[in-house]
Amino acid sequence: MSVDAAVPLVSGADVEEAARLLDGVVRRTPLEHSRALAERVGGPVWLKCENLQRTGSFKIRGAYTRIARLTAEERARGVVAASAGNHAQGVALAARELGAAATVFMPETAPLPKIAATRGYGADARLGGETLTDAIVDAVRFAAETGSVFIHPFDHPDVIAGQGTVGLEVLEQCPDVATVVVCTGGGGLVSGIAAAVKARRPGVRVVAVQAATAAAFPASLAAGHPVPLTAMATMADGIAVAAPGDLTLAHVAGLVDEVRTVTEGDLSRALLFCLERAKLVVEPAGVAGVAAVLADPAAFAPPVVAVVSGGNIDPVLMMKVVQHGMAAAGRYLSLRVQVPDRPGSLAALLRELAGLSANVLSVEHERTTARLDLGEVEVGVHLETRGPDHEQHVLAALAAAGYAPRVD
């Protein structure tokens, strides 16, 4: 790895200056203790709730810092941004409060609530392309054609300094923190947090977490320069960034202790965990840090602070992810059993399941498969259970009753 050492990094003083600029503009978000995570880690674990920030994410911090530092003439030309949603809202609100017109390019796949919120803050939201990379290309072209100032979602010193104010708050709210875990896409948030934390407490471990199917940092760090991903497929649209910038890559290489990845199952389990145990509504991208702690709690020395970064989630996606999370957590069980094709066989199976306190969600019959002998029927049952232990109890009890269940 030979990331350009000549790239100047944002300093702790830069972040502190941004904090003074943002005083009275952004919310000092709460730090909530998680007993359930603490039990797993073996020490205190706190959630830094940036999902409760204005616009629902930390993005207002960097966007406001960047736009506030433009000249009056630059703000008069307007600003333009590209975003899957959270940066869009941050730019839209910051521009409105600072008197600048804002145009935001968003992928066609951007969640509808994020599009509506961006327009609600007064920005001209334009949809096009399939990815954030496409939106950035359109935004840069628009800036060149109109003279609008492009507000990069992560690769600018002012944006990084603004996002870094999250790190200052973490140090003030949890002075003995040992590990800070940060969900990471393009790297603006973790770059800023690392700059702030390492300036005051160099021994604090900073861990960046990416979705495994949209993790651009590992290859880029290995190559020493940004390496674009050829494909991305993740529910965490907010951190689905094809490549880091030169500036964020330099920060992660120089200041971040580790980059970890989490699976889609990890993300869905973490989202369900935040709903059930922390009473927090968080989008998939925003739970990446929590997902990493849940997946490997022994890897994080306490006290741990996991940044929960975004609360903007489409309700339709929420339903899908919750179902996925319940399946990943062993709360759903789909199985097939073969029973005699005669009256009462299905009723007997359902009575057996009722006695095991397994809630039947759906039932289907299959009579034509080659697996069946003459006079048999296969019953597919989709169950809701209380978790992995209950699943195993149901399977064992059915086997003991002579059903030979087969898990789908």
> Total strand count, please?
14
Largest sheet: 6 strands, mixed
The class by helix and strand makeup works out as alpha/beta
Distance between the termini: 45 Å
Shape: elongated
Arithmetic mean pLDDT = 92
CA gyration radius, whole angstroms: 24 Å
Number of H/I helices? 17
Work out the oligomeric state of the chains in this entry. single chain
Instruction: Name the helicity range.
Output: 40-55%
How do the strands of the widest beta sheet line up side by side?
A: 1-2-10-7-8-9
Question: Beta-sheet strand percentage?
Answer: 15-25%
Low-confidence stretches: none
Q: Brief overview, please?
A:
With 408 residues, the protein is of the alpha/beta class. It is built from 17 helices and 14 strands.
Helix-strand layout with pairing:
Elements: H1 12-22, E1 31-33, H2 35-41, E2 45-49, H3 59-68, H4 72-77, E3 79-82, H5 86-98, E4 102-106, H6 112-120, E5 124-127, H7 132-146, E6 149-150, H8 157-163, H9 165-173, E7 179-183, H10 188-200, E8 205-211, H11 217-223, H12 246-255, E9 258-262, H13 264-278, H14 288-295, E10 304-308, H15 315-328, E11 332-340, H16 345-355, E12 359-366, E13 376-384, H17 388-400, E14 406-407
Parallel strand pairs: 2-10, 3-4, 3-6, 4-5, 7-8, 7-10, 8-9
Antiparallel strand pairs: 1-2, 11-13, 11-14, 12-13
